[in-house]
Each structure stands twice: as C-alpha cells, then as structure tokens.
Amino acid sequence: MTYRAPVKDMLFNMKELAGLESLTAIPQFADYGIDTAQAVLEECAKLNEDVIAPLNFEGDKNPSYWKDGQVFTTPGFKQAFKQFAEGGWQGLQHPPEFGGQGLPKTIGAACGEMINSANMSFALCPLLTDGAIEALLTAGSDEQRATYIPKLIDGSWTGTMNLTEPQAGSDLALVRTRAEPQPDGSYKIFGTKIFITYGEHDMSENIVHLVLARVQGAPEGVKGISLFIVPKFMVNADGSLGARNDAHCVSIEHKMGIKASPTAVLQFGDHGGAIGYLVGQENRGLEYMFIMMNAARFGVGVQGIAVAERAYQKAVSYARDRVQSRPVDGSVAGSAAIIHHPDVRRMLMTMRSLTEGCRAMSLVAAAAYDAAHHHPDAETRKQNQAFYEFMVPLVKGYSTEMSLEVTDLGVQVHGGMGFIEETGAAQYYRDAKILTIYEGTTAIQANDLVGRKTLRDGGQMVKAVAAQLAATEAELATRSSAAAAAMRKRLAQGREALVASAEFIAGQGKASMNAAFAGSVPYLMLAGNVVAGWQLARALMVAEDKLAAGEDSAFMTAKIATARFYAEHILTRAGGLRDAIVEGADSVTALALDSF
Amino acid sequence: MTYRAPVKDMLFNMKELAGLESLTAIPQFADYGIDTAQAVLEECAKLNEDVIAPLNFEGDKNPSYWKDGQVFTTPGFKQAFKQFAEGGWQGLQHPPEFGGQGLPKTIGAACGEMINSANMSFALCPLLTDGAIEALLTAGSDEQRATYIPKLIDGSWTGTMNLTEPQAGSDLALVRTRAEPQPDGSYKIFGTKIFITYGEHDMSENIVHLVLARVQGAPEGVKGISLFIVPKFMVNADGSLGARNDAHCVSIEHKMGIKASPTAVLQFGDHGGAIGYLVGQENRGLEYMFIMMNAARFGVGVQGIAVAERAYQKAVSYARDRVQSRPVDGSVAGSAAIIHHPDVRRMLMTMRSLTEGCRAMSLVAAAAYDAAHHHPDAETRKQNQAFYEFMVPLVKGYSTEMSLEVTDLGVQVHGGMGFIEETGAAQYYRDAKILTIYEGTTAIQANDLVGRKTLRDGGQMVKAVAAQLAATEAELATRSSAAAAAMRKRLAQGREALVASAEFIAGQGKASMNAAFAGSVPYLMLAGNVVAGWQLARALMVAEDKLAAGEDSAFMTAKIATARFYAEHILTRAGGLRDAIVEGADSVTALALDSF
C-alpha cells in the first residue's frame, strides 16, 4: 500500500482541537459526532487507499492528453471517478435537498486531505466542482440550482472556474472576455480563458463552466465583471443534454506537475458565441467568485497538507528499508537503516511536525467555518466567520509553502533514488509547486492578510488571536513537563514576534505602504507558523492528560514528541521573520529598478 | 539572450574579496592578475552565452537517450563540446605540461559558474573530467598521466567517477565491485556501478572510467577499496584506440532534472572482465577519490550558484515585462510591471543576495585553494589548506540548499507561467534538486563539518573564523552608514549564534553523538549563512569606499543594497538555527522508531 490515511490523527484533531462534539449542538450537525466521523473517515480511507492512490504515479507517467478538441484522462481515472461519485463523496458537504450529505466541513476537510494525498491530480476535479456548487448555492437562481447542482453532486457533470486570461492572472481587473445580452435573457460569451483545471475531460457527461466576463458597457476594473454559467452541452428543459455549446478546448498545458489534471485553454465564442446564463446580478461576479475562491483556497491549503503527508509516508518507508552507514551513537554495530541517523530523523520530524501542525490548523479553521455558517446564534456566527476569514490565508499560504519544504525533504531522504522518477518522491516535489501559485499565490494570500485582515482593523484580529495564545501559554505554565516548558517558551516568542510584526504593519500609513507590504509573505509565514504551533501546543496538553490517564500511550507520546519538535525547530524561526519584517522593510525596495 | 554572465560581479569578488592580485605573488600565477582574469572571463562569457546557454532548454526537452548500449546526447551537444574543447576550456586549471592553461582556481571557478549557468547538464561532463584529471595528477603513475591527461584536457576523451553501487551510496564501505589481479599487472573488474554521470555518451572518442573496487583479499570496509582506470576503449602504446573494453552501459536513468546529462548504469565484466589499471597503491582508493570528490564538491557548490544566477536573471526579466495590478505605493496609476510590487522585489532581492553571497564565499574559498596548493611558503599553504577544507562543505552544502530556495522563488515570480514547462523556470527548479544530493548529500557535508571540522579540533577552526568576523565587525563599527550598522548588528548575532552552536557541538562527548549530529544540517546552514554574509559585509565596505571615491556608483550602490538586504533578511535566520541546534537536539531523536 502506497498510502495509509492518518485516520487516528484526523479524529484526534477533530475531537480534541476542533471541537467536533460541540458542533453537534448545531441542529443540522446533530448526527455528526465523532462516531459518525470515524465511520465516514474509514470508508473514505478505503476508497482512497485502494482505488485512487494507486492511480497517482500512473497519472504522472501517462498524463491527460488532448486530441482534436477532446481531452483523454489517464487510464483508470474515469472508472475511479464513477466509484467516487457513486459513493456519494462529491456531495459530502453539500445540502441534502440537492442530493448531498450535509456533513460539516470539519469532516469534509479530512476527507479532502485523503483524496488529495491519494491523488492530487484526480482530486482537483471534485475540488473545482465543489467550488462551482458553492457559487451556485450562493448566487444561482432557484432554477439554476435545480438544474445544475444535483447533476454536479451525483457526478454526472463536473464544474470549472474560468477566471484567468493571458493578460489577467492575479489582476482580474484586466479580464476582457465579453458577454453580449441576447433577447431571450441569455448572453453570448466571447473570449479566451487559460489555466482552466479540468476545463475539458472525459470523466463526466457534461462540464459546467463558471465564467467571468464583462457585459458590454460595464464599468472598468473589477466592478464590471459578471459571472456566467456556460455549459459544455446545452441542457434541455427535461435535464437531458442538447447541442454542443461554443466553448472549446484548444489545447492543454505541459506542466511540471499534477500532469494528470488537464489544464485547458478554453476558447469561447469562436463559432458565433457561447451561450451563457448570468449568475446573480450583473457586475457582482467577483463577489460570487470570491465565495468559490475562499472555498477553493482552503481546499488548496488542504492539498498542501495532503501531499506533505504522502511524501512523509513515503520517506518513512524508505528510511526504514534503506541500509547505509553506521549510526553515530554506536547503537548498531554495522550499517543500519538510515532512520537511525540523526539527520534523517530531523528531516522526518520536520516533515511530520509541519504536516501535523497544518492539519490541526486546517481542521480548527474548518470547525469555525461550520459554526460561522450554521450556528443558531448570530454573534457566534459572526465571530467564527471573522476567525475563519483570518485563517484562510494562513491555511492556504502556510500549508502550501510548508509542503514545498516537506516534499523537498522527502526527495532528500531518498538520496539519489529521490531524483529518479520511478521512485515517486520527485512527483510530490513537482506536484506541490503549483500549490503556492494557483487560487492566489502566496503573495496574494499575504496581501489579503496584510490588507484586509491587519491594516483594515488595525491589527485587532491578530491581537485577539494573540490573547488566545497567551491563554494557552498560561495553561502550559501550570504543567511541569519539559515538553510543556519548551513549548511555552517558543510559543511566547512566536506570539511576541507576531504581535510586533502586526503592530509594525498596522502602524504604516498611506505614505509607507511599501513598508507594510514588504514583509507580507514573511508575516504570513510567521502567522501560519505560530498559529499551527498554537494548535500543537493545545494538542500537547491534551496528549499529556490522556497519557496520564493511560489512554493510547504510543499515540499520545508521539504527539508530545512531535509538538515539542515543532516548538524547538519550527517555532524558533519566528524571531528571524520578525526581524526581517520589522527592521528589514526598507531594504526590500532599496535597489534601483535598473540595477536588477 | 537567455543568459548574461555576471562578469563585473565576478571580477569585483576576485579583486576585492578573494585577493586575486596578491595571488600573482605566487610565481606560476604571476601573469594572472585582474586584467587577464577579465580577458578570460569575457571570452568565456561569449562561448557560454552564445553557444552553450541556448542548448539548455533543448536538453531538457530532448534529453540524452539510450539505444543498444549507446547513449545519444541532445542535438548540438557534441558540436558545442568540440568548441569548448578547442577553446582550451577543459584545461583551464590544469598544468601546462599536459596541455592545460594553469590558471588559478579563483578564475576557473568563475568560468565554472558560467558554464553551469549556461547549461548544467552539459557542464557536468567537463566537471567530471576535471575530477578524473585531478585524481590522475595526484595518484597516477607517470605513464598513466602521460597517457590519459593530455587526451582528457584536449577533449578527445572524457572522464567519469564510479563510486556508487545499488547498495553503496553515501556508505562506500559497502562497495562490492571486485578486481582480480592478472599476470600482466592489470586487473579484471567485475561489478555494477550506478548513477555514473556521462558514463556513456557520444561527445568524445573514449571515456576514462575511474572505478572504486576491492582487490581479492582486501580488508573489509573503506580500507579495502582501490582505484582503477577502466577505459571504454583500450589504449594502444602509440595512444591510438584499441579493442572495446568490457564496460557497458546497460541503461540510463529517467530523472527529474538535468535530463540532458546521461546518468548511466555501468556493467563491468559481464563478458569476461573489464581490464583495469590500478591507480597509486592498493587499498588507498578512497583517499584518492576524496581528492576528486573535494574538487567535485566545490564544483557542485558552484553549480548551485550558477543555477541560482540563471533563475534570478530569468525572474528579473519576467518581472520587468509582466504587467499585473497596481503598486501599493500608488507610484503607478494603473497596472504596472510586477517588479513594482514589494513582494516581487523581496523575492528578487532574496535570489540576488543569496547568489551574490555564495559567489563571494566560493571565490574566497577558491583563492585559499590556490594559495594552499601553490604558495611558496609552507605555513601559508597549511593555513590556506585548513581554511579551504573548512569552506568546502559550506560552499557545497549552503550554495546548493540556497539554490533550491532561489529556483523555487524563480518559479514563484512567474506565477502560473512558472509551472508551465515551456517557460523554462521550472527546469531550474527540477535541475537544482540534484545538487543537494550528488557528491555527498547536504547531510554528508554536514557530517564532514561536524565530525572532521568541529569535533576533531574542538571547534578551533570555527573560532578562528569567528575572530576574523569580529574583526570585520570592528571595521564596520568605524563607519557611520545605516547599511554598515545594520550589517554589523546582524553579523554579530550570526557570529554569536555560530560560536554558540560550535561550542555546543564540540562539547558533546562520545555518549551524546546523537546530540552533536542532530543539528548538523542546521549548523551547516548557519555556518554557510554567516560566512557568506561575512563576505558581503566585506563587499559592503569596499563598495562604500569606492562609492565615496566616485567609482562605478550604480554597481557599488547595488552591492551595498544587496549586502544590507542579506543582513536583514538572511542573516536574521541565524538565531533560530542556533536555538534549534543548541536547545533542540533531544527532540530530533525523541520519537520512538515505531511511531513514525
């Protein structure tokens, strides 16, 4: 088996850190306590371990390919997608009224991690479909919802997000695709979209493209962008498929990674105009798209955790098997498995602690999402929404950046074999690199954290989080263990670094925006580092208590060791980040443009 | 043009930091002052910019391939190698008596950077040939030197290093290839070698394999390994080529990067035995191989700098062209080239300052090599040799690890385009990953730094270097500029962190070897970071003085800005590394083996 889902760690995080049981107080989640979660996760693990994971390497070797406007996916993908859909996995988090299961995101996120560990390229199709469903749920008309959502949930159709154009990447103000109103209320869409994930493929009967375009006469910039449904095949009144729409895949990209996932160039309207239907109101497209994007950003953060977990498992397995050199501590007389060497342990612990820290962070964020959307109390919803929004750039930005470090170490543990493609470790390294780019680069996440989530409220949200950290530190202070003491020391330093950085950023006026944004990515990395560390601090205390109570001592001992490693090797990066942000802003933009 | 050699920065480093002019006091380098260096570098730049660099992307697209035991290199490689050889570039650093130019390594290293920036896959062939020449110069008989070296220098033949076997990677004690003495004084070699760079190719008439093997009855472990010359074609007494030797390439690897460089599996002796000739004495093979390896390790460090420079140039070019979003400082009204965005600047400055820092470090090390090998005074030779040996793991380990960071940022600057192979940025990311692995992984370099260069002398060498840093700090203290003050502050913190770490490591007894080695790679990264920063500190002072004297103000201003950025954004990592090394050793090995 090439992948074993970390069900136990997921359940520990859900129960002990994310408060899954308390979510059952929300009426619609009443049945989704830890036992249900366990049953769902175990079922999910089976599908991913047995069916989807074995296709991962195959997808890298035999990627999707384009021929005459059609895209053919890796052998086995179509059948696996059928099994995935028939198992009801696409509808996991979506409303029962449309055929979904209505599970909390807290459980859904763990399932999302599994499918992405199993096969990131494959998982992108459901991930994008989730986004399309969310957008239609939020902004679609009753008719649109009834027409599209059930088919998206049952896997007959899949969804795409069409934002990027050659001149409009991070900057959607530059979108030029145009929509011409038709007498029947529909629109004709004309333009080119690039980087469209699963923009064309052979795994479903139809593809529902959600497309950003400008209606003629709309305002310039992002305030003139509308959102349209453009189905690949037109949908008849009875739900059956009609004519082929004028939306065609003219090529797919040749990428460094996630090769099995087709990245399409879509041409709309080259043969008279693609028929599109306005979603919601004109010129509010970006707002709707942000709903999709926030869901997708969280999902991409989970992809980072997922690929890190898979890389970790592979590295552990190799480190146990590969015999090379004598251990420096003399514990083995001859050559030993390399897992006995301290630096291999350091690499594995770095991989493990980063992955577990980000998993904890993401599941805590998912629980906030669930409360924000479904809690009966409005104030609770509001608070959770604010916390969730603060967490999204951290989950996306930090988890994906850490996945680059983890997959690099994964190759490194393998030595020369890691560089050989047949080994498989290199694939994770190549696959992971897209994660810091799509759905908003790390810099875009950092802009969000600095702009909307620090400058706008003068750093209040960060300080509220810091107060919670201080409370955790106070709890740690009541404990006598060396692990708790080490964690407390490093968490306090991390918190102080974070607050100092937030204050520096919040203190910049309009005249010094460059200084505020010069450290945006280090600030994001600092915030992610400290918030993930905070969750491991909480985990450490739970584990100490469980251990004292004699519960699952191997797991709890491992959790304590992992948390302590994070404190001593990862949280210790905080001071350097603070120094760069607070004292190094000017040197970022000092070099004259023509001196580069 | 896709690559422009940084001749000016190279000359600045040679002259102002590496003391090239003082090397001219050494008789054989009397003619190789800065003017000669400039002439050589400009000539070298032409060949690499015009001929070799354009083949880099082609090599990735159309790699070397194997057919029926033969390896065919990328179209254009053979012709380019001919030009390279005819230009005398293979012999640059080798003795004139064998047809070389006898230039100092200080100049050779800069030329090495250029060819590796131009085309790392191509450059590996000369790099390995250099290693073979060095080994034969050191340990070969007069006859062997006369037979092989001139042909290796004139490019008729190339050289390889055959160390690795499937079960023997970092651990050469496990080498099993055997050598059977023959009545005529030769040996028959039997065994399988893997990961042999340019182990088979079509660019030269013959290939001189240098092969580690065990003579029957030799001691176990590394003390029973001997070094043999195994030519692909036998060499007749008149120097012409004779029969094909029984050394055959049975396959080449399918790798993540450096695809144009064939990585061969070589089978020795499957048809009766490959004829080999002992180099030097029996059982001293590892000692000779280390000569080659030290040269090759330095060369691989330079490869890191080289690929970083190329990635930097590409990223700058894209950042100047790509228009996207309004600058946060309002300096441009509409969408602007992304080089106007602070985070893009941060990425470019990180790339630039790491590259320049490592370049300075490597050229200073190269000058120490030159003095160590050729200075008339024995004590000077000894001191320089000790310093050079201390620097080799830093140049290799730190420059290659930084190249992963730089090439990652190179992709990141390109956004989504970076992930598309046609853009070319992804190739550097894939290519660079081998550098932290071959010629001794980063952990092997770190073991060398901890074991031979810190534990053995109780940290004396590190403290001697620290004393030199303190002297640089004292010089910085006499200056009034903010840049000098920032550098002094961070360099002092870096030095203190380095000394504390060295003391911690040197203080570990036999009972705590795990603790000494747990932080080996962080210690290597810390040492490299601080020593490269030290060179930039020296550069900063020179640049301030030149600027005051009105000399080349754009270059000097840029050097100051780059050095200051390094101080504030890279040297600031030192404290966290110290904390992990000194206070985090136990947590590295705390997790039970069966809990991974």
TrEMBL record, chains A, B:
Residues 283-449 form the Acyl-CoA dehydrogenase/oxidase C-terminal domain. Its cofactor is FAD. GO terms for molecular function: flavin adenine dinucleotide binding; oxidoreductase activity, acting on the CH-CH group of donors. Pfam families: Acyl-CoA_dh_1, Acyl-CoA_dh_C, Acyl-CoA_dh_M, Acyl-CoA_dh_N. PANTHER family: ACYL-COA DEHYDROGENASE (PTHR42803), BROAD-SPECIFICITY LINEAR ACYL-COA DEHYDROGENASE FADE5 (PTHR42803:SF1). Residues 73-155 form the Acyl-CoA dehydrogenase/oxidase N-terminal domain. The keyword Oxidoreductase applies. It catalyses: 3-(methylsulfanyl)propanoyl-CoA + oxidized [electron-transfer flavoprotein] + H(+) = 3-(methylsulfanyl)acryloyl-CoA + reduced [electron-transfer flavoprotein]. Keywords: FAD, Flavoprotein, Oxidoreductase. Residues 161-269 form the Acyl-CoA oxidase/dehydrogenase middle domain. SUPFAM superfamilies: Acyl-CoA dehydrogenase C-terminal domain-like (SSF47203), Acyl-CoA dehydrogenase NM domain-like (SSF56645). Residues 469-591 form the Acetyl-CoA dehydrogenase-like C-terminal domain. This is 3-methylmercaptopropionyl-CoA dehydrogenase. The keyword Oxidoreductase applies. Its EC number is 1.3.99.41. Involved in the assimilation of dimethylsulphoniopropionate (DMSP), an important compound in the fixation of carbon in marine phytoplankton, by mediating the conversion of 3-(methylthio)propanoyl-CoA (MMPA-CoA) to 3-(methylthio)acryloyl-CoA (MTA-CoA). Belongs to the acyl-CoA dehydrogenase family.
